[in-house]
Amino acid sequence: RQWVRQVYKLYAIVHHLRWIMQKDLLGQDVFLIGPPGPLRRSIAMQYLELTKREVEYIALSRDTTETDLKQRREIRDGSAFYLDQCAVRAATEGRILVLEGLEKAERNVLPVLNNLLENREMQLEDGRFLMSAERYDKLLQSHTKSELDAWKIVRVSEDFRVIALGLPVPKYSGNPLDPPLRSRFQARDVYHLPFKDHLQLLYSIGSNISTERISQLLSFATTLCSQESFTLGLPDFPLDSLSAAVQILDSFPMMSVQHVVDRLYPYNVFLGKEGRTAVKDALKRFELQDSESHLLPQRITKVERAHGNKPFKADVTVQIGEKEVTFQVPAGTGLLKKHSRSDTFIKTSSHNQLLAEMMQSHMVKDMCLIGGKGCGKTVIAKEFADILGYSIEPIMLYQVSKLCFKYDLKYNIQVLILCIYSLPLSVILKTAVGLHI
């Protein structure tokens, strides 16, 4: 939330919002295209908040079908009927339809929206026909509304708009848009924040960090997003997650910068020898390599429920070097684990350090544990959940999901990553949703 509030004030974001508003006034649908990250979605949601518009949102995937966009047939009390889905609800209620991940949808799914985008018309499975507001109003001059209702003609609101979000294909994996569908949108390239604006944002977050250090960190990240780095086969650095890294360093200014960089960009896990050498050279060039004066978190010394009217917060104290730092993290509704002894989990020094790092990451963002089979990812996640009073909601990732996540991990690293073991033989994703992990 802090990131969104700060980003809203930047000139580059205001420029994007102004462009979307111009297209909205012209009655045109827009397509925000750019590198992976939350920036495009954040801009779309900021525009909806500014204009006080209602939204219908759908995240597209390879499993998305026509029924997810138009109508879904359901059976209730022995009777079959159709339920309007996001595209139909947005069209009839005058909302803005946000389609995220256009590159992930199968090629035969999105063309069902072609006529709705171009002419504001669509034939529905229940026999109704969506008609543009202009044509509907003309018919209303010569026919009554009851007649149009009998003909099952439904008016599409003149306020209906579509904001599509997607990645450029190629550079990134996915399905390119069909030319007929692509021509329905007014496209805008939403790249990362300009260097100056991003630097200003990070300065406002990291008041306890030297400006030189923040500038070096941003310069390093920008270098890994350059065309030269892409030619070397290096995945993009998650620039949008730099704010999370700076928040951690702001609370722990004595901590190793390179160690935090490793969480955002675990190059030792997914890069070969040549790629690792290139990243290490960039770290050395911007003076971000570890020195003896930098420290790492050692263990959690105390966890207690936050005081005041904060039922879902906990105060965590972590030892780093000879100091103890207390900070606040989200927590569940269960009892916090006060004692460190357990019959099912025997802590080692590496476990203590990992749990302390997980607490740091949990302070600012979701996290992903990477490691080989049987190295203890699930046990660590359960111990972490017990400490903060969370209940666990496991989701098994099968072959298709693994492939999708491999793509997201390589090109859309928006979580803080903690490596237990160097070989990425399996990936377990634990994402904080509500009060569960």
TrEMBL record:
Pfam families: AAA_5. GO terms for cellular component: cytoplasm. GO terms for molecular function: ATP binding; ATP hydrolysis activity. Signal peptide: none annotated. InterPro entries: ATPase_dyneun-rel_AAA (IPR011704), P-loop_NTPase (IPR027417), VWA8 (IPR039891). Residues 29-185 form the ATPase dynein-related AAA domain. This is von Willebrand factor A domain containing 8.
